[in-house]
Amino acid sequence: MANTGQMLLVLGAMVLFSLMLPSLNESILYSDRTMIATKAEMAAVSLAQRILAEAGTKAFDEACITGAPIFPSQMTPTGSLGAESGESYPNYDDVDDFRSLNLADSTTLPSVLLNVTASVVYVNPSSPSGTSASSTFVKRLRVTVSGPFLVNPASGMAMQIALEQLYSYF
């Protein structure tokens, strides 16, 4: 009789353990997904910051390369922003060349492919959050990074990392 009581306790413990195991397993998997997503986010931010810093080392506009003072009317028109013929990344020579950026990077986080695109617009200096239809002394570069592991772990939804920076000619 004493063995029967112990056997029931063991069976009860096994049932409880088997009910808790899927929950424990899901918790471990969620933690792993969160860790992978966090590493991918950090790599994406690092890559975007690197591109923004690199753009900061370039001339403001093609017209500025000679070093002579220029006026907005002499700068690249808004419809022509982007790399000039024959230019490709990483051999850009001015900020608006980055508008043509379309890069697949697997060196920032090995075994994870990150896709990088960029946009460049002229900005009205008195309202930097908007855009300007004509050339000004301020440009905004927006770098967007996407990839298969850039997901919100809670929802599973894909996301992108986007960073912006203003560049001015003064």
Give an overview in words:
- The protein is an alpha+beta fold and 170 residues long.
- The protein has one domain.
- 32% of the residues lie in helices and 18% in strands.
- The mean pLDDT is 88.
Summarize the structure.
By secondary structure, the chain is α+β, with helices and mostly antiparallel strands.
| Basic shape | rod-shaped
- Rg on CA atoms, Å: 26 Å
What integer is the average pLDDT? 88
How far apart, in Å, are the first and last alpha carbons? 93 Å
Across the major sheet, the strand order is 1-2-3-4
Number of strands: 4
Order of helices and strands: HEEEE
Number of discrete helical segments:
1
Approximate strand percentage: 15-25%
Low-confidence stretches: none
Structure classification: alpha+beta
Helicity, as a percent range = 25-40%
Can you summarize the main beta sheet? Answer: 4 strands, antiparallel
Number of domains: 1
What layout of secondary structure does this protein have?
Layout: H1 2-56, E1 102-105, E2 114-122, E3 138-146, E4 161-168
Antiparallel strand pairs: 1-2, 2-3, 3-4
Task: Note the main attributes of this structure.
170 residues, alpha+beta, 1 helix
